[in-house]
Structure formats: C-alpha cells, structure tokens
Amino acid sequence: MGAVRTHRPVLMLVAAFSRHPEALDWGRARIESRWGPIRLESERFAFGESTYYERDMGPDLTKVFWALERLADPGELPARKVRTNLWERELAESGRFAEPRPLNLDPGYVTEAKLVLATTKDRDHRLYLAEGIFGECTLHYSGGRWQPRDWTYPDYRRSDYHQFLDACRRDLRGRRLAEPGFPTP
After folding, report:
1. H/E segment holding residue 57
2. Is 184 part of any domain?
3. In a domain, 18, yes or no
4. In a domain, 2, yes or no
C-alpha cells in the first residue's frame, strides 16, 4: 500500500486572452490583488488557431500567460477557476466593452511533469476536481520537451508557448533544488 502524502507545491499560472489590452491589464490586476505578484509573464501572443471564441469575444485575440510568485497547493485549482469565472462575469457586466465576453481567464499549474488546466466542461479525458471544475493534463514533459495529448488544443502545441512553459518549469525546478532535502538526480 502506498503512503498518502500531500502534493508538493506547484507553479500556478493563468492563461488570459482578449482583443482588448485594457481587459488583459484589468485581469492581471485582479490576479495580483488576490494571489500576489506575477513571477513570470509571457509575451503577448496572437491567438489565431481557432474562431471558436470570435462570436463572444470578437476577432484578433491576444493571449498571455502569467505565472505566480507564490507556489501553491494544486488542490486550490477549482477555487481559482471559480474565482476567475466571477472576474470574467464582473468585467462583462461592467459594460466597458461591447463583446459579451471581453476576457477569458484560464487558471492552471505547472509541475516538472505536466501542465494542468481547469475547465467547467466535462469530457472523457477530464477528471472532476471539485466545485463543478474539471482538470485536464493539457501537456506533459517527456524526452526533454513538452508533448501534446490527443486532446491538446492547437494553440498549446505551439513552440512559443512551450518556450514560456520551459521557463516556468526551470523556475520551479530551480526553486525546488534550493529546498532542503530535495533529491538530486
């Protein structure tokens, strides 16, 4: 029988996209006010792999990733997704933007082995976590690089996303190596 133990803290991140730079800035401010400073920020990527969001969000979307300073328990992911959904609704109802959904916020986390994203949508490959939220292992790290799954969204297959996730993984690994008692290979 395996021993039950708590999971090591993970590097929490949020993927955000919008056509409005001000909406992205607003989202970042909410994230920092609730969860603390951003440790790593990606460049702002053009998001053109899908037209799925255009009806609610408009064209010419831009995506950015923010990795948080404070490492956290991965069990916090459902509550974070519930919170980001509330923020999305708050901004939409503010009337500042014409689109019904001016901002999309997708929290997740990075470990040395995987990228997990939270979603409200159940599918055959997603596991129920809590509070109406499911978790998806979107990418896994194997053979020295990020690898997609059959279900991985097209944009998460991009090498520029992977470069940012590499920086997140290196950061997390460096912080763990600095921990007392961390096993070295």
Report:
1. helix 54-57
2. no
3. yes
4. no
**Residue 182 covered by a domain:** no
Mean predicted confidence (pLDDT) in 128-147 = 97
Which residue is associated with the tokens 């997704």?
Answer: 81
Tokens of 22: 């001000």
Quickly state the pLDDT bin for 181 (edges 50, 70, 90).
low
Angstrom distance (rounded) from CA 59 to CA 48:
9
Backbone phi, psi, residue 98, to 5°: -75, -30
Q: Tell me the whole-structure pTM to 2 decimals.
A: 0.93
**Six-digit token string for 70:** 């404070």
Closest CA to 39 of 7, 76, 2, 67: 67
Where does the pLDDT of residue 182 fall: very low under 50, low under 70, confident under 90, or very high at 90 and above? low
Distance, CA of 42 to CA of 10 (rounded, Å): 18
Nearest to 120 by CA among 111, 112, 131, 109: 131
Mean pLDDT of 41-57: 94
Long-range pairs for 89-94 at CB < 8 Å and ≥24 separation? 91/23, 91/26, 91/27
Provide the domain limits for residue 33. Answer: 11-176
| Total domain count, the chain | 1
Calpha distance 59→64 (Å, rounded): 16
Alpha carbon 95 to chain centroid, angstroms: 26
Q: How confident is the model at residue 185 (pLDDT cuts 50, 70, 90)?
A: very low
